[in-house]
């Protein structure tokens, strides 16, 4: 897209900035935002003025403050020069390729011998009780720095395997680079066919993220997230009292690995969402989200869950905690 093209925010916004003012990846790095744009953003923050994305939230949910987990996705990643490179440094290719140990991809096949040894990645529903000890390394991982682009910027950037050469050109990436492979895997996950009983959509902006929740559940909804009292290196947690089932008509949104924030949001029939109070071995308190899939008969027989739990598709409910940056829409 040529520099100088007008940048129109979501219709609810009246603010316009030239596209050349926003940032792009160059040589696997984000360019710094121009000083003027940073100054404008700081002025917004200092004066508590609403950014366009916040305006859209208020127009849809006028009586509900934006959750902190969502607000954090609006902070520009202007100073992050190696975001994609940092992502590919993660040696856990199963988690990197398809997001969170295949949590976002029930059709994923994992070759025998490549499954992680962490026995708590998946577990049975009857284990979701007070006193159960769990190793939850994904709950304490620091959030990635990928944030949402303004809606019309995200809409202007190609996002499909068919236009992948254009994407590489846009972000100045070599076709055979690890960063390019990471982007391609995320797009392929978004384009994969839905399994039976699954509805899915990839949101590339806050507006499309909100719209995906409303289209399925209506406006009488709330957004849930994992909550960690403080940053910690401790992975050992014990389930506390107060496990609560939040419903079976939820939309779970997995944050995928990309050059900006992209969420794969999907609902799967016969899936229950729980909020789970936790206490870490170091005393850190948390409230985590867990889902239990009651019917896995449509899943790939070689999915990671069956390899870990040694069961077959459709036999028993299978549960897992949601990675720290995962969000979930539920009906009020």
The residue-averaged pLDDT reads 78
What structural category do the secondary elements indicate?
A: alpha+beta
Q: Calculate the terminal CA-CA distance, rounded to whole Å.
A: 42 Å
- How much of the polypeptide forms β-strand, as a percent range? 15-25%
The tally of helices reads 10
**What does the largest sheet look like?**
8 strands, antiparallel
Q: What integer value in Å does the Rg equal?
A: 20 Å
Coarse shape? globular
Would you list the SSEs in sequence order as H and E? EEEEHHHHHEEHHHEHEEEEEEEEHEE
Into which percent range does the helicity of residues fall?
Answer: 25-40%
Question: What descriptive keywords fit this protein?
Answer:
332 residues; alpha+beta; five-stranded antiparallel sheet; 17 strands; 25% helix; 23% strand; globular
Characterise the protein shown here.
The chain has helices spanning 35-47, 52-60, 68-71, 83-88, 93-98, 151-156, 164-170, 178-191, 206-217, 304-309; strands at residues 6-8, 16-18, 25-26, 29-30, 123-124, 133-135, 198-203, 221-225, 227-228, 236-239, 244-247, 251-256, 262-268, 271-280, 285-293, 318-321, 327-331. The chain is built from ten helices and 17 strands. The radius of gyration is 20 Å and the shape is globular. With 332 residues, it is of the alpha+beta class. The chain starts with 5 loop residues before the first strand and ends with a strand.
Topology diagram in text:
Elements: E1 6-8, E2 16-18, E3 25-26, E4 29-30, H1 35-47, H2 52-60, H3 68-71, H4 83-88, H5 93-98, E5 123-124, E6 133-135, H6 151-156, H7 164-170, H8 178-191, E7 198-203, H9 206-217, E8 221-225, E9 227-228, E10 236-239, E11 244-247, E12 251-256, E13 262-268, E14 271-280, E15 285-293, H10 304-309, E16 318-321, E17 327-331
Antiparallel strand pairs: 1-2, 3-4, 5-16, 6-10, 7-13, 8-17, 9-15, 10-14, 11-14, 12-13, 12-17, 14-15, 15-16
């Amino acid at each position: 897209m040529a520099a100088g093209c007008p940048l129109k925010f979501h219709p609810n916004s009246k603010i316009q900035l030239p596209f050349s003012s926003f940032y792009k990846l160059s040589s696997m790095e984000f360019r710094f935002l121009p000083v003027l744009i940073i100054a404008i953003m700081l002025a917004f923050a200092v004066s508590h003025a609403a950014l366009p994305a916040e305006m859209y939230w208020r127009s849809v949910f006028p009586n509900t403050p934006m959750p902190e987990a969502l607000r954090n996705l609006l902070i520009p990643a202007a100073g992050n020069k190696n975001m994609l490179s940092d992502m590919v440094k993660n040696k856990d290719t199963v988690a990197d390729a398809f997001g969170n140990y295949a949590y976002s991809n029930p059709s994923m096949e994992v070759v025998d011998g490549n499954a992680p040894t962490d026995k708590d990645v998946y577990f049975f529903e009857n284990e979701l009780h007070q006193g159960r000890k769990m190793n939850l390394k994904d709950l304490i991982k620091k959030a990635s720095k990928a944030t949402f682009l303004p809606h019309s910027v995200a809409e202007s950037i190609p996002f499909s395997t068919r236009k992948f050469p254009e994407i590489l050109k846009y972000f100045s990436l070599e076709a055979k680079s690890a960063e390019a492979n990471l982007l391609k895997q995320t797009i392929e996950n978004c384009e994969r066919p839905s399994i039976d009983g699954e509805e899915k959509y990839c949101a590339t902006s806050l507006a499309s993220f909100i719209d995906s929740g409303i289209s399925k559940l209506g406006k009488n909804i709330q957004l849930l997230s994992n909550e960690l009292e403080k940053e910690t290196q401790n992975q050992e947690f014990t389930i506390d009292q107060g496990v609560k089932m939040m419903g079976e008509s939820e939309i779970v949104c997995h944050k995928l690995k990309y050059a900006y924030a992209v969420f794969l949001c999907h609902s799967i029939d016969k899936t229950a969402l729980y909020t789970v109070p936790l206490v870490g071995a170091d005393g850190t308190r948390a409230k985590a989200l867990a889902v239990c899939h009651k019917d896995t008969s449509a899943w790939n027989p070689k999915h990671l869950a069956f390899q870990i739990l040694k069961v077959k598709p459709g036999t028993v409910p299978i549960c897992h905690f949601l990675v720290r940056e995962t969000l979930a829409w539920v009906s009020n």
